[in-house]
Every structure is written in C-alpha cells, then in structure tokens.
Amino acid sequence: LAAVALHKKDPEQERKTKKQKRVMSEESGMASCATSGARATTIAVVGDCMLGRLVNHMLLRRGKAALVSGVDPDDQRYSALAAAWQAEQDADEDAARIPEGFWPDTSTGYIWDGWLPLLRAADCRIANLETSVTRHRDKWPNQAFNFRMHPANIDALTVAGIDFCSLANNHMLDFQTEGMRETMASLTRVGIRFAGCGRNLAEASAPAFIKLHGGNSSLPPIQLALFSAADHFKYWAATEDSPGIHLIDPERVTDTDLNRIAGLVRAAKEIPHTNTTAAEAARPEAAPGPSSPSAAASTVPTTTLPGRTLAVFCLHWGPNYAWQPSAAIRRLAHALVDRCGADLVIGTSAHHIQGVECHHGTPILYSCGDFIDDYRVDEEYRNDLSFLFQLHLDPVSCCFTSIGLFPNAIRALQASTGVSGEERRWLYARMRQLCGAMGTKVRAVDRSLRHLEIVL
C-alpha cells in the first residue's frame, strides 16, 4: 500500500465504537452470552486442505491400510513414492469411471480422524481447498505441482460438514478453466458454498453467504459474507470478460482496488438475509438442482437485519515458509479492516502457522497452516503441525470474543488430534512467540493443555 492514501477510520474512534456497541447491549440487558442466556456462535476454521494426489488416490482405492502403512513423509523415498502413485493414478482409466458414492463414509471420515465431533459441533466450518475437484486431465503447463481430487471424493468434505471453501489459490486452475468449472459444479452439487473464482471478475470477487442461527431461536440470525482472494498467480487473474481467480496483490494494491473491495463489502452488508449461496447461484455451469441451496433460496423469505452481516476475507497470500507476514501483507490486512469493513481476516499459503493479531478489535489469522496434505515435512517450520481455530462470536453484539486453538498433526494422510507432548510444547511455544510479536496474548485454558485461547 505504499504511496496509497488509505483514508483510514480513526483507530481510537473505531475502538470506541466497538466498545459502545458492547455497552449498549449490556444496558439493554443482553450484553453477553452470560447475561442473555444465549449460546456463543462458533466458527471452525482450518487451513489448507490438499485432498489431491496421495489423499485422493487413497480415497479412490478405499485401501488406506495398504497405502498408508509404512509411509514416512520424512523418508527420502517419499517423493519418489508419491510420484509413482501419481503416475499410476494418471494412467488409471478406471479411476475416471468410479461412480458417485463408490466408497463408504468410513473412508472419507478417516482423513479427519478425531476432528469430526468438534467440526460437526460448530455452527459454521471454513476451509481453504488447496486442490481442484475434477476429472479433467489437461494440466496447466509449467506448474511445479498440479493437484486434483476426483469428484467422487467430494464426500470427504461433506462428511466433516464443511460449509465454505475458499477457492482463490495457486492450485484452482491446475487443470485449466475446465477443472475450475468442475470444481465449482462439484461443490454446488453438494451444497458447499464457495468464493474466489468464476467466469469473470464480478463472479470471482462475489461473496458467498451463510446464515448462522447458533441455536439461539430468540435472536435474529447472523449472516456471514465470505470473500476469497489470492496474490498469485497473476496470469490466473479473472478480468471483466475472462475466467480466473480473484487476485489481490498486497505489493501492488491500489487505492482503486481498495475502493472496489470496500464497495463489495458495503453491498454485501446491505443484502437482505437469505439462504442463497449468492456467488454460485449466478453461475450456469454449476447447474443447481431443485434441492440445492441456490434453488431453494427463492422460496425462503428474506429479512433485512442491519448490522448482523459480517464480512469475512479468506486470503491466500505470501511466500511459503516465512514466520512473519510481510509488511505489505500486514498493511493490506489492516486496510481490509480499517477501510473496507472486514470483520474477520483468514490467511493461508505459508504452509505453517503464523501469528494472530487483534487489529482494532478485529481478528486477523495471518496463516492457519496446513490441516491435511501429503507433503514432506520441513523440520524447521513443521508444516505438519497446525491448529483448528474455533472462533467464538457473541450472538447479541455480533463481536468475536475469543479464539480456541486446538492442535493438529498431519499423520498418514489424515488430520489427527493425536499430537504428542513434545509436538504440543513446540507448537504452543511457537504460537505464543508469533502472537506476542503482534501484541496478542495466548493462554492455556487449563492444566491439561488440551488447547490454547486468545481473548479478544
């Protein structure tokens, strides 16, 4: 944002406004979940979910025991093994003809290990889908990696109750625009909302909408407007008349870009509450059927609920393996909050955790790390260790109150709750250090050290 006039809101005034919002709720007798009896709304956020390559192959074959046993990601033979299995999959014509629902839920549930109860208990589940979902075979040329998951494996997402997938990333067009379109259609078919790509910039930058009831029938619902964007690849950027991803480059973002984004947020917050997926509904290639969310939306009455729509930005940004987000990324994150009206910023791409910042009362998760993949482990950055982030939202004030950080370890092609004591100590110490550098305090919830907590 160098040399760009941000026209920021006054930080002190922003802080006072948020405080006044809470105080006004208190004076009305509904200040907090404790005083109103309302249950906190929870949003579960996981980082990169790379369900292609070995994970995809395992699911297609339903042979997790045969494929996983003896696989050590640290083994020097791992890359060769991965390449061999990928070649086998590419040559396997039968894989392209596997019918929908070919394998049982036990196979799809395997990749989530012990996370399913916590995921299913949340009111909303958000993930970055780091692969295309397609049978298309023509790769985008000169890519280091081309990831795809067979559409027959889409239940790997639905079994965990994933509600929203961020699609603006560096793998969405790995199998050309045809692969991107099939990804969108596959998600729409099972009712998973998404944002970040489309036939043109208008579609790629449009948000998806999710209504949160949170079990509080006495309160009007909260609506999330979820946006998705990435800073690479530039040649995949959607334009006014060409398909691609929603591109926002922190190093080159302009005043015009920020005005455009702010306009999108304003428009989203003025849209009446519905059950529609919004961005998906306008895409003919998604072809929603009578049971899809977008098809059902026309029968659902809408209501205007000022102040109860929250803008969530999912950003795939920055280089791999860097403990601190760049100055440009932090400036963009702050601008999304101060100027564009973001209520939550979720970052991915680094392949490992980065710190959490509370900027004028708004949480910024700079990198959620990898949640599930088949990657080789980097011993310094420990890309096999991350968190499930559980955000708690006060349904009365519509303010985030805290974040629970539950440790995750990638083992044998699954996201696992089985984190060792040594791994837990390393992960907790690193997160405290990274958050501390941003002025964020992290505490252990109890002596069991089951998870950490950030009070906002």
Counting helices, strands and paired strands, the structural category is: alpha/beta
Q: Roughly what percent helix? A: 25-40%
Please tally the β strands and state the result.
20
Number of helices: 14
Largest beta-sheet characterization: 10 strands, mixed
CATH level 1 class label: Alpha Beta
Q: Radius of gyration in whole Å, from Cα?
A: 21 Å
What proportion of the residues form beta strands (DSSP E)?
A: 15-25%
| Overall residue-averaged pLDDT value | 82
Question: What would you say this structure looks like, in words?
Answer:
- The structure is a single chain.
- With 456 residues, this protein is of the alpha/beta class.
- 29% of the residues lie in helices and 22% in strands.
- It has 14 helices and 20 strands.
- The longest helix has 17 residues.
- The N terminus is likely disordered.
Quick structural gist:
The protein has helices at residues 11-27, 33-36, 53-61, 64-68, 78-91, 105-110, 116-121, 155-158, 176-189, 201-204, 255-270, 293-296, 327-338, 421-436, and strands at 41-49, 124-129, 132-133, 148-149, 164-166, 193-195, 197-198, 208-212, 222-230, 244-245, 309-316, 344-348, 356-359, 362-365, 370-372, 385-394, 399-411, 414-416, 443-444, 452-455.
